[in-house]
Design goal:
2 copies of one chain form a homodimer. Chain A has about 425 residues and is α+β, with helices and mostly antiparallel strands. Chain A has 2 domains: about 100 residues, Nucleic acid-binding proteins (OB fold (Dihydrolipoamide Acetyltransferase, E2P), Beta Barrel); about 325 residues, BirA Bifunctional Protein, domain 2 (2-Layer Sandwich), CATH 3.30.930.10. Chain A has 12 helices and 19 strands. In chain A, the strands form 4 sheets. Chain A has an 8-stranded mixed beta sheet with strand order 6-10-11-16-15-14-13-12, with helices on both faces. In chain A, strand 2 and strand 3 form a beta hairpin. In chain A, helix 4 crosses helix 6 and helix 4 packs across helix 12. The two termini of chain A are about 50 Å apart. Chains A and B meet through helix 3, helix 4, strand 6, strand 7 and strand 8 of A and helix 3, helix 4, strand 6, strand 7 and strand 8 of B.
């Protein structure tokens, strides 16, 4: 018999079907045994009635997470047992026979509330929870729509490298790799230099890239490895062209998740993001004025949260751009127009209290770039490959970088970024604890 | 004035327009100067006529790869100068004014024929060539369609980690990373273990992942860092279910590139891939019989080429599956049915002479998996995280892995994989030569 997916059982009422999946719950009522069975498409209740002697015997053996094949008849539930709240709440599978495919032994109930370390220690099991599945289904949609929106805006995807010859941004936070013959390589801290090079090829390149930071912090925000969604574009007027592309991308993503994932937002008791016609834009000092804070070169996490509350209240927006940061606080390649110094053409995008994106116009003139590299105490020789792109003619360009895990975390208002990272790596853990 | 993309100039005949782009070619004829100008959308010929005194002066300064803005009038070309062979072959831009945005100094002509090392030494410049742009446009389409086809087949994307706690496959080819506090981490040699874990969550997960191999080979096939397109699926009958999904993916990709990239195939003088209704499938020993070769446990590169010629001749196919490899030659997690021993349920997919994909049914039983790990002389403790997934119930599953760069290279019949890798890393080079 061909397998029927659980989401399609509603079309099979009265018929004999075969389903395959995992046991989520078993309720043994002595003469009868009830199950919740799930597959990739959803969940259904099944029951083994007292008459089905063989099936009852197998049912008694079964425990949560057993992998099974079940044959049975799809019945409408009696009116009093119907539920409109849950998937397949109006039907039930009357199980005629069960075949155990794999046995299982679980450490605790799947949807238990757990502290983060227990969750992570048991990750291959705990991400099977509805919550785990929801978070990473949401993440897959964010990623897909991010790419799709950029393609619609004429961007072309490329593969940025992970192995780097030098710690390009000079921040001393790059992990070292033992390369061949005792040479040292580094893990990329950003795909920045490569996407600028690719402006010369595609004019509008984008990449989804892993980046790595060896920051000795153990916080809810720090990870050794994260996924960045990066784009870059040539022939811009200034950073506002970049902000416009980004705003369109964000709107497309929000539109998609709002349409596709109403159920996930409901289970998380989180509203879908508020997106106004135009995202509010504040200069850094304006934001600090609003908060009654002194003019500093950057914003503290607490200030990011407060200004987001302001944007929500005043503009009905879960997003707010902050622009005009001092050049000294931004990456070396950030463009500064003389008349605007010491402020640069950079921006951050905040979402529900957290910076999820950073971008700017970049320097495009070769001599200016070399000067800036030297100013920052770095050596142009270390950037010889990158600088070639500028020697052979670069247009005014800019771009931005969105953290996939951060975006996911704020989308579902998850407080710790690690829960929105599938297999988080930090100072203490790569799958298992490093101290073990 | 708003910028017009070069591909849209044909709709602007008789009108005054502004274009922005790079100078590909300058032909100074004394009183007149001709240019080929390109942007992300294409290329057009422009001419500065003798009357345009100011523009002529600027035109004389301009060299290849200068970034410019040009205003002018779009004219129909006289009949005798029309070309139907090239984009915009029936129009010409009569340039009225030119603004130089960035100057450039190039080491040699852009579309020169180069040896591989010169090409790679100057990569930020040389990938701007039509050939470079073509290869990576093709690669972007392959990647997009691969994902799109899997999504249509009910797969969900996830992010596999790059940093690993151990050299999981035990092949001693993993790069070591200096992690925190003198701990050693490794670069992933495969996303395999994670996609198996994800079968428990999505049943049908897929991932696009960088993998790393520290193989001390300097050949046209070896790279330190490549991109793998990986999927895995639960509740399979055997490996043929996996082959069917893969075959559909490959057909979707070929369909897409055949439709979108006729021009690229034409420029490469390569035909679009031959795809029969059903891909030919040969058992390893059958393939060796056809070649009149002795029964060995694997195929030599030369045999892969020969059997592909056979498939093309006999089945009008550029693809051929090879199955039933001996278990000893396959990864430790490969499934072997007792009645089929010592052969396993694995397969390779060859495309135009090269293996581009490898897959199999995997072991799903916990005890069996532990036994196999020990058999291979590895320690189950090193796989404790992975093995958790098997303890909590795994269905029969399998999957496969396609090399993006290999697939791209064979698509355009590029002999060296490095040319189909955007920023290739090998034993001698990370951007610049390591010996420098």
């Amino acid at each position: 018999m061909e397998r029927v997916l659980i989401k399609d059982l509603k079309n099979e009422v009265g018929k004999n079907v075969l389903i395959k999946g995992w046991i989520s719950v078993r309720r043994d009522q002595g003469k009868m045994v009830f199950f919740d069975i799930r597959d990739r498409s959803g969940s259904v209740q099944g029951v083994v009635l007292p008459g089905a002697t063989e099936a009852i015997a197998v049912a008694k053996e079964i425990r949560p997470e057993f992998v099974v094949e079940m044959e049975g008849v799809v019945n409408k539930r009696p009116e009093k047992n119907m539920s409109t709240e849950i998937q397949n709440g109006d039907i039930e599978l009357e199980i005629k026979s069960i075949k155990i495919i794999s046995k299982a032994e679980v450490p605790f109930e799947l949807n238990s509330e757990l502290n983060l370390d227990t969750h992570l220690d048991n990750l291959p099991y705990t991400i099977r929870s509805q919550r785990g599945k929801d978070i990473f289904t949401m993440q897959a949609t964010i990623l897909e729509e991010y790419r799709s929106s950029l393609r619609k805006q004429d961007f072309t995807e490329f593969q940025a490298p992970t192995l780097a010859g030098a710690d390009a941004e000079g921040g001393a936070t790059a992990f070292k790799v033992d390369y061949y013959y005792n040479k040292v390589a580094y893990l990329a801290t950003s795909p920045q230099l490569y996407k600028e090079i690719m402006v010369g090829v595609f004019e509008r390149p984008f990449t989804i890239a892993k980046i790595f930071r060896a920051e000795k912090h153990s916080t809810a925000r720090h990870l050794s490895e994260v996924t960045q969604m990066d784009f870059e574009m040539g022939f811009i007027k200034d950073h506002t062209d970049v902000m416009n592309v980004l705003e369109k991308v964000i709107k497309d993503v929000v539109q998609a998740v709002t349409t596709k994932h109403k159920d996930i937002f409901a289970r998380f008791k989180v509203s879908t993001p508020l997106v106004p016609e135009i995202f509010p834009i504040l200069k850094l000092y304006e934001a600090q004025d609003i908060l009654g804070a002194p003019h500093e070169n950057d914003m503290e996490p607490e200030q990011e949260r407060s200004i987001c509350e302001w944007a929500k209240e005043k503009h009905n927006s879960d997003f707010v751009f902050i622009t005009h940061f001092p050049t000294v606080k931004r990456a070396f390649y950030t463009y500064e127009e003389k008349s605007e110094a010491p402020l640069s053409r950079g921006f951050d995008l905040l979402f529900r209290g957290l910076e999820i994106n950073s971008g700017s116009q970049r320097i495009h003139n070769y001599e200016e770039m070399v000067r800036r590299i030297k100013e920052r105490g770095m050596k142009p020789e270390n950037f010889s490959f990158y600088l070639q792109a500028f020697k052979v003619g670069m247009p005014p360009h800019g771009g931005s970088s969105t953290g996939l895990e951060r975006f996911t975390a704020r989308m579902l208002e998850i407080s710790n970024i690690k829960e929105a990272t599938l297999f988080p790596r930090d100072i203490n853990r790569i799958d298992t604890l490093l101290s073990e």
